[in-house]
Amino acid sequence: MTKSLRVLVVDDEPAIARVLEPVLRARGAEVFLAASAAEAVRVALREPVDIVLLDLGLPDADGKDIITKLRGGGETAVIVISARHQEAEKVAALDEGADDYVNKPFVIDELLARIRAAQRRLPSAAAAASLKTDKLSVDFATRTVRIMGDEVKLSPKEYELLRTLAEHAGQVVTHRRLLLAAWGDPATDPQYLRSYMALLRQKLEDDASEPEILLTEPGVGYRLALG
Fold first, then answer.
1. Sequence-separated (6 or more) residues with CB below 8 Å from residue 158
2. Tens of pLDDT, residues 83-130
3. 184: number of CA atoms within 13 Å, CB side?
4. What H or E segment, with its residue span, contains residue 217?
């Protein structure tokens, strides 16, 4: 994290703020706090922030209802932090525009990793023409995909799925978003998605049965691992 990173923590539990504020400040972030949906929107309008850490169970509204307002023109990343573990809640938050979802209780190191991944999606980083990890590289301009330096040929739908995951690398992408990206219709039978993800893993993973690049988020979607 850099000193320019501005983080808004939206949570009505004082204990969460007591934990997160010093951790984030120690890493150079400027931190703002809000304990309600109304306060969060006011702060976001007054103080443009880079990342919002958003609890869903706010006293005056469901956090999902303010995700669009907090994202503004899409220049702010929203990471939902919630005790609601139901898959439907995660999918709904992500489909509303959240960039990621972390369950309470959370491990600080995992949350910081998700924040770093979200940072890479900020406008200054989003214009990057390629993605590179230890094994995988994707050149968006030429549609070239390589594993350990060797080019891999993908079908158009395989590439669209990989491109979408690569553009949100490190973050979970819902089934709905992937179906929309590759088939143009989020109501497409999810079995098509599972079949194409299996094909992608055959081409990209050392062992498709134990993927290290294309990870499954059960009941929610998939995530392209950055490490």
1. 196, 199, 200, 203
2. 887 888 888 898 888 989 998 888 999 999 889 888 876 655 444 578
3. 1
4. strand 214-217
Residue-range definition of the domain harbouring residue 210:
128-224
Helices (H) and strands (E) in the chain, counts: 9, 12
Mark whether 116 and 146 lie in a shared domain. no
Count of domains in the chain? Answer: 2
- What is the domain-level CATH number for residue 59? 3.40.50.2300
Each residue of 135-182: pLDDT tens digit?
A: 999 998 889 999 999 999 999 999 999 999 998 888 889 998 899 889
List the Cα angle 46/57/165 in 5-degree steps: 75
Q: Which amino acid is at 98?
A: A
